[in-house]
Amino acid sequence: MSIPGAGAAATKHPSAETARVIARMLTYEVEGQAAVTLEAAGERIFVCSPREWQRQRSGVPRMNGLRAQEQIDPDRRRLLGAAAVTLAAGAFVRTGSATAALPEFPRGTHTSFASIRQIDAGLLDVGYAEAGPAGGPPVILLHGWPYDIHSFVDVAPLLASQGYRVIVPYLRGYGSTRFLSRETIRNGQQSAVALDIIALMDALKIPKAVIAGFDWGARTADVMAALWPERCKAIVAVSGYLITDRKATVMPLPPRAELGWWYQYYFATENGRLGYSQNRHDFNKLIWQLASPKWNFDDATYERTAAAFDNPDHVDIVIHNYRWRIALAPGEARYDELERRLGEGPEIAVPAITIASDFDGERADGAAYAKKYTGRYAHRILKDIGHNVPQEAPQAFAEAVLAVDRY
Length: 407
Prior knowledge:
Layout: E1 19-22, E2 24-30, E3 33-40, E4 43-48, H1 50-57, H2 74-77, E5 84-87, E6 117-121, E7 124-131, E8 138-142, H3 155-160, E9 165-169, E10 178-179, H4 190-203, E11 209-213, H5 216-227, E12 232-238, H6 246-249, H7 255-259, H8 262-267, H9 270-291, H10 299-306, H11 314-325, H12 336-343, E13 352-356, E14 377-381, H13 389-392, H14 394-405
Parallel strand pairs: 8-9, 8-11, 11-12, 12-13, 13-14
Antiparallel strand pairs: 1-5, 2-3, 3-4, 6-7, 7-9, 7-10
């Protein structure tokens, strides 16, 4: 994660240049029935039967042919009778999707999960929350630093209401997740964290899932999709392509960009390690405030997450993660080949939606990484939202999961 410094450039708006994208109809099978899809700029706008398509073109308002979760909003219906749509967006920005029939409730309605379960998986005894039917299509939601599973406390019930089996694990070094052995190196490498989730899927007997996350969680989704695409049905990645290339991270950035990584350089010192160990509660609250300046979270919301930082391995994992990224700490030999492959900047072919927010500044348009996603892909931009997208905008995050699962 990088925190924009004071005075950092505002989020870049899409180009004013208008791109005309020809909409195309495709026929395919949905639940064994022939259907019509209207697509624009790679985004599925609606799905319905051929008869319903004719009804829409004739101006009939009801869309009985749509499945409940694929109802579209009134503004989108104007597109249905047109042979082309005009998108006021830059060449790399693809926005818009079917609006799912999700239940609506104010952000922060939910404050906890029903229970926390534990399961041995790989090197860890993983703590995780679960929601939805056990036989539903699986979705795994991954948090980052300095956050925890409560980032998804409103997202999980939204997805569960659509029949998904939702798994929300504490990453290594957070909450009730513990290492099974004292001898295991407290390693925060990106490949190690990704393998934790593969091991969790194995333990839960989940062969394939939609993976969605932000910060470390988005990086983990990217890594899993790049290295183990057979385990990823699709991904949602806040801030886009975050796979770390250590050759690039040791190169200097412009001063304002370097300012955003102040805490990483603080962690590079022993003073920083000691300071984080002693002051992690207040330190991480400061990061929340800097990363999401428009999110007026209350103390109770922060405290629910702050408890996860009391994990006995938390400081070791966080410090190693940030030192490893800038080549100040070694990795483990067992992960060398995986990191070599990740250092090559692999493309991601599984279906993907990336989400940008105010936090992403000039990179919000997604142009810097759009070409990394070679499969079915869309990019969404959220205004007035900070870094903790699933907790600040749970409806938008859940809708992205639903949309990418239909790709």
